[in-house]
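Support reply, case 0932

Customer input (verbatim):
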Amino acid sequence: MQVEIITPEAKIFEGEAEAVQFPGLDGSFQVLNGHAAIISALAEGNVKVDLTKPFTVEEDTNSLVQSDNANKNVIRVSIKGGVMEMLNDKVIVLAE
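Our regenerated output:
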């Protein structure tokens, strides 16, 4: 699935993922490829993205994106809240 994480200031991340875990208002939840359409509010916490290929930090990588030392296919993005939408295997996160 395609994942985009966007703040009012910039696009934080864009890439392909197998799963994404979110800090929901009532607890964490996860979406996988083929998940039904969903819109949800997000709480402060980390968005965990399980990528389809290993992540490499580049010069233009946003400082909010942290790679997992134990698994190079996992990144975490710290957010202060926001909204996510999953529709047709595309996840858009509008984060603060």
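We compared this against your earlier run and they match. Two observations from our side: The CA atoms of residues 49 and 67 lie 10 Å apart. The longest strand covers residues 11-24. Please reopen the case if you see a mismatch on your end.
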